[in-house]
Amino acid sequence: MIPLLGILIAVAIAGSFYTDRAIRQAEADFPPQGKYVKVAGVRLHYVCKGSEQAVVLLHGNPGSVQDYPPETIDRIAQEYCVYAFDLPGHGYSDRPAIATPLVQAQLLRSALQKIGIEKPILVGYSWSSAIALAYALRYPQEVAGIVLLSAIAYKADHALLPLANFAQSSLLEFLLKFIPPNLVGYFLFAHLNKGFLPQSPNVDYFKAAQALWTRPIQIQASLEDSKNLPSALEEMKKRYSEIDVPVVIVVGDSDSFVSAKENSYRLRDRLSHSQLLILPDTGHAIPQTQPQAVVNAINIIRKQLTKNN
Q: Residue limits of the AB hydrolase-1 domain (predicted)?
């Protein structure tokens, strides 16, 4: 019994050492590329580029600002001022004790106010559609329009949901200190591959995701976000018809990750000022695979705003 206990302790120590080293290496290989803004004691990381009308890019779960590759940000920045945020606990943003979609919308609003941004166009991707919708419902006079990419608005059929109940358990927090990140990487590859189908994951994007998403703090944030999503959607869906700003919903016709029928199509039918764009031969990862479609959707919002004025 004693020799077995000694072996287990040795394995745990080795796992902890390897995990710490992997985290340091990941953050050295993929350091933060932007600025920080601190609100309510929470430091948020964001990338800013361009000028004119503000466009705020929000990523998926798990994810980071790298959900929007440089070429996508560059294209948008040719006509707009882009602000791409790491959501709380993802990338290089801090995580508050409570981080529901509504709380994250409140943090985002405080950050935008501190930076000096008024009435942005919000772009929500996948999980962060909930933040964009929460923002529009809570602050209807402070958003110009919304673009939703591969939206999750009703049915939170997320790959992490089966594990989400363990999000805040002490056992998970303990285990994550000893589980080598490369083991998590095997699950991550399947997760990304499904999201990109019928295309394949971008190699550089996968390397960054494998490095940053497998850090214990981000795994825990991802699970917490998955756990918080269903109840948030259940509450918000009763009020979607109140959203009175232009909304463009973009969905791939081959999305095997999120049901377009249960989310994007239903939301389009509920919003009186919405437009649905269906991209052929496209999966879930629209920011990575269809950058021009993102730009086109933002342009539709701008044209609608110009027409209304």
A: 54-286
* CA atoms lying within 13 Å on the CB side of residue 256: 11
Within 10 Å of residue 253's Cβ, how many Cβ atoms? 12
Can you give the pTM of this predicted structure? 0.89
CB atoms inside a 10 Å sphere around CB 277: 19
For residue 74, the Cα-to-chain-centroid distance in whole angstroms is: 19
Report the pLDDT value the prediction gives residue 286, as an integer from 0 to 100. Answer: 97
What's the rounded Cα separation, in Å, for the pair 83 and 80? 10
Residue of 292, 231, 236 lying closest to 267 (CA atoms): 236
pLDDT at 27: 76
Q: At what angle do helices 70-77 and 291-308 cross, to 10 degrees?
A: 20
Q: How far is CA 15 from the centre of its chain?
A: 29
Residues of the chain with pLDDT under 70: 1-23, 26, 157-186
Identify whether the C-beta of residue 149 lies closer than 8 Å to the C-beta of residue 294: yes
* Domain span including residue 97: 2-308
The pLDDT of residue 8? 41
Q: The domain spanning residue 137 has which CATH number? A: 3.40.50.1820
Phi, psi values for residue 46, rounded to 5°: -150, 155
Q: What is the dihedral of CA 135, 136, 140, 142, to 10 degrees?
A: 60
pLDDT in tens, 225-244: 998 999 999 999 999 999 99
Give CA–CA dist 81/304, Å, rounded. Answer: 18
